Amino acid sequence: MNGTWSPREPVPSRTDWARVAATTPLLLLFSVAAAYLQFIGLIWYAAGPHREDCARIERYSGGTVPAGATDVACTATGGLNDQDHEIDFRIPREGAEERLLDAFPRLRRESLCAADACFRVRPDEPASRGLWGYLEATVKYEGDRAHVHVLAT
Fold it and tell me: What is the helix, strand, coil percentage profile of the chain, to 5?
């Protein structure tokens, strides 16, 4: 107790050190496995579709969801480096295309289209300055409503 060893104090034996030496690799293995599974979960979350803040997507795409839009859903899909940002909403059919162009002023009407109306901005166009890449919007008419899908990559 005064800096000297007393026979009453326990001294670590060789078996105690052997236990420590035997469990250290197991703890290291479990730590590495846990980190790997956490990383895989992060990649899985980033690659799969997930809800996204609409304001963030609006900044990303250079537009805004028109006032009075209903059923607004904002999602992001893709990996860590390549993501697609999508906004879906419905607006009244009357004046839908004009409202869309007011909300996303960089879009240009396309003549070839599988939907009722298509609008795009390609990365090489001057209107794409400030955007990350490709911007596309499609309009499908559903009775007196227009379903709008905006995709920014």
Answer: 35, 30, 35
Q: Flag whether pLDDT at 19 surpasses 90.
A: no
Q: How far is Cα of residue 72 from the mean position of the Cα atoms in its chain?
A: 17
CA–CA distance, 107 with 100 (Å, rounded to integer): 9
CB atoms within 10 A of CB 70: 9
- What whole-number distance in Å separates Cα of residue 61 and Cα of residue 74? 12
Tokens matching residue 149: 């899908």
pLDDT tens by residue, 124-149? 666 556 666 788 999 999 999 999 99
Domain parsing of the chain, residue ranges: 50-152
Letter for the amino acid at 89? F
pTM of the model as a whole: 0.66
Amino acid at 11: V
E strand spans, 3-152: 50-51, 70-78, 83-92, 108-110, 117-121, 135-142, 145-152
Burial letters 91-128, b for 16+ CB under 10 A, else e = bebeebbebbbebbebbeeeeeeeeebbbbbeeeeeeb
In one-letter notation, the amino acid at residue 73 is: A
